[in-house]
Amino acid sequence: MDFNSALPIYVQVMALIKREIVAGRMLPGSKLPSVREMAVSYTINPNTVSRVYRELELEGVCFTKRGMGTFVTEDEGRIARLRSEMASELVERFLEGMEQLGISAEETLQMIRAEQEIRGS
Question: Residue 121 has what pLDDT?
């Protein structure tokens, strides 16, 4: 995986895991890969993975069962809130970018509607 050198690797891995969870590719209660497996998978230091899991646990996204591993939270409300928070951040960044381009809110909406028509959604 290619990491952005402007952001700490652990933050980027946390974001990837959160995306997998909110997208439903990691289900509530499912087991995350072991620290070693994750380190090999992303070609990162196991200490970095340990930090990722620790931080995710502090945020309530995951929990650890001693001797069994780390698991995705079973709190579907927490996952829904995380999804909403992540979506809001994306929308905010998008709108800021459109403003920087000098595109009005109305023009932005028109562009979104046109794109939806093209995609058939």
Answer: 65
